[in-house]
Amino acid sequence: MEPKCGKVYLLGAGPGDPELMTLKGRKALEVAEVVLFDRLLSPKILDWASDEAEKIDVGKLPGRHKLSQEEINALLVEKALEGKRVVRLKGGDPYVFGRGGEEGLALNNAGVPFEVIPGVTSAISVPGHAGIPITHRGVSTSATIVTGHEEPGKDVNLDWEALAKVGGTLVVLMGVSRLEQNVSVLIKGGRDPKTSAALVEKGWSPEERLVVGCLGNIVQKARDAEVESPAILVVGEVVDLARDLGPRSVAILRPENRAEESVRQAQDLGFRPLIAPVIGFKRLDLPENLAGRIEQAECVVFTSATGVEIAQEDENIASALEKATLATIGPRTEEALRDLGLEVSVVPERFSSSGLAEVLSTEFKQVLLLRSAQGSPELVEKLEAAGVEVDEVLLYDIAPSGDSRLDWLIRKAEPDAFAFTSGSTARYLIERAQELGLEEQMREKLAHAKVAAIGPPTRSELDRLGVRVDVMPERYTFKAMLEELRRN
Question: What domains can you pick out in the chain, each with its CATH number?
């Protein structure tokens, strides 16, 4: 009796964003018993595979292979002949410079059934995400897709001088290592050095960058910007459309615990969010009698959603808050309390320290203030001036985030806008740039971008730091700030 043979799925994962994986591809991954995967993948895609599935990293780096292509072919055959469902997971599309055809031929020769599940190819989707359609009526009606580096010893090599004469849009994949040589031959072959050109680095990832120039200067621009692989070169007048079609990028400097909602709000308004947390939170030791102080307070005041999250972690404090009269500085903090099933009695019309102090001083003689150690003294000063007794408890302190995404923002990113949600985010951004020896470059980025401050205290700190503020919303909320940026 012949052994049972499994099946292999040659699956394209698309350009990196998990949401661009096809439904058919996800279903295949969920039932796979073996997954052979490449390096250009989001870890979230692999999470769809079963915990019991055998996962084998066969990823290739330029000039360094974990497994040769022949070894990958043999491994696919071996696992399938063991009767297993095997997924060969690779970035982009298996048949667009993915060597899927070679794997398919090896499987066919071994008598192993296989199926190709297409993926969204980076050749089209990465330029598109950056605002460059590879064809556009009246600009380019054809596109040529080539690889920028070829296997040594090929019998037939690309005729770059012939490509220069083809016209239309030229898309070059995997071309960073040979960028200078390829561009030089295109110009030698007759392509005008003034032809628009762009490099899209790490497309669809949080570190995506667009470097725009022309054939005559794109090599130097790539060198100055320190462009790294993977990057796609696009040559043609369609590159100019990125000015109008590309999404505006906004640097979001809020702490990590606000990242998810920030991304959602920014994307809903058409921005490409660049998450770069500047600050982090350090929980402080809470007084042992805090629950009792909450019960005795006329009103318990929160000034941030983070404070709410920290306070409710203690069961005794959470229980005491259920019976307390609660006040917040704004709607986001109110929402955090309501998510816990707590009713909020006081939210000022003006979401600021002065607006909150004005409302509280008309209704209470004593309040318990739960907030950050870096909170503005204005609220306490105004309450005490109005004769309100303030019992203040510091829940957390603010410290530099140490986040690598912030360093990337300072070193490489060129945001169209910066969204500052506190004075501390502004202060620590400049301090980190100073530590990296890049303060001048950081200030140049701020000078060329739109700068938004969420409210007066943040604006005052930016003014003190010598950073021009272009936008401040009438309602001091993150969403209102983004809406104001979109209008400007």
Answer: 7-120 (3.40.1010.10), 124-245 (3.30.950.10), 248-278+401-487 (3.40.50.10090), 282-400 (3.40.50.10090)
Active site residue 339: no
**206 and 249 in contact (C-beta within 8 Å)?**
no
Name the active-site residue from 38, 79, 382, 481. 38
Residue 303's region, left for phi above 0, alpha for psi from -120 to 50, else beta, is alpha
- Indicate which residue of 7, 17, 55, 60 is catalytic: 60
- Unique residue bearing structure tokens 């300072």: 410
DSSP 159-222: -HHHHHHH-SEEEEES-STTHHHHHHHHHHTT--TTSEEEEEESTTSTT-EEEEEETTTHHHHH
pTM above 0.90, yes or no: no
407 catalytically annotated: no
Helices (H) and strands (E) in the chain, counts: 21, 21
What's the pLDDT tens digit per position in 83-118?
Answer: 999 999 999 999 999 899 999 999 999 999 999 999
**174 noted as active-site residue:** yes
CA distance linking residue 476 with residue 470, whole number of Å: 15
Q: Which residues contact 233 (CB under 8 A, 6 or more apart)?
A: 148, 170, 171, 172, 175, 179, 182, 183, 197, 198, 199, 218
Select which of 174, 442, 472, 481 is catalytic.
174
